[in-house]
Amino acid sequence: MSRQQHIARTFVELADTLVEDFDVIDFLQQMTVRCTELLDVAAAAVFLNHPGPHLHNAAPCDPSPLLQPVLQAACTQGPAADAHCTGRAATAHGADAHALWPRFTPRLHAAGYTRATALPMQLRHATIGSLLLLHTGENPLSADDLMLAQAFADTATIGLLHARTVHEQHTLNEQLHTALHSRIVIEQAKGILAAHHSITLNEAFDALRHHARHHRIMLSKVARDVTDLALMPPPAPARPPRRTAATE
Q1: Segment 108-133, tens digit of pLDDT
Q2: Which residues contact 58 (CB under 8 A, 6 or more apart)?
Q3: pTM of the predicted structure, to 2 decimals
C-alpha cells in the first residue's frame, strides 16, 4: 500500500463513526497508531476535555510505562493543554520548554523524547481536546506532515461530535418514547380509578399523584400498578378551600 493510499484509508476510518457499535476508545487508539505510521513521530496520544476541568488521556499508542508520567503531566501542563486552551499548535523543545512547562518537560526528556508537538481538536468554536505527537529526533515535523496531522485531528473531531449528536438524539428519542408510553398508561389508570370510585378524571389524577407522593414512588409506577395489578388508591383528601379577599 502506498503512503497516499494509507492516508486515504485513514481518513475513511476517521469518518466511520455513525455506526451502532461505535467504540470511541478503539477509534482514538487507531488514530494514534496511524499517526505513528504516517508521520515522523515516535508516539502519539489523544487528550479529551470531558469530564472535568482538565484534559484526560483517552488513547496513547504506546502503553510503555516510560510514557505514562509524560501523559499524566500533559493533562494539566505542556503543549497538549496549551493547544486545547488556545486552539493553536504548541511545541515543547529547547530551553524555553523548561521555563514554560517545568513539570512536563523533564518527564518528556526522561522518557527519551526530544520534543512534543500538540494540535487542537476543534470544530469552529468547539474544542474537545488535543492530539499530542512525541519525537525522538531533532527535526520538527515538516509543514506537510503538520498539516496532515491537523487534518487527522480535525476529521476525528468531526467524527466524534457527529457520534455524540447521534447518541444524544437516540437518548432523547428513548426519553420521549418513555414519556409518551407513561402518559398513555397514566390516562388509562385515571379512567380505571374514575370508574371504580365514581369520581372525575381530575380527581382520579389527584388520587394517583397523592399515592405516588405519599409512598415516594414514580407516578408512572403507580399508574402501571393500577392497570396491571388492579391497585386502587383511594381518592385524595379534599383540598382546603382557597381563601379569598372576602373571607380574610
Answers
A1: 999 999 999 999 999 887 888 999 99
A2: 24, 25, 28, 46, 47, 48, 129
A3: 0.69
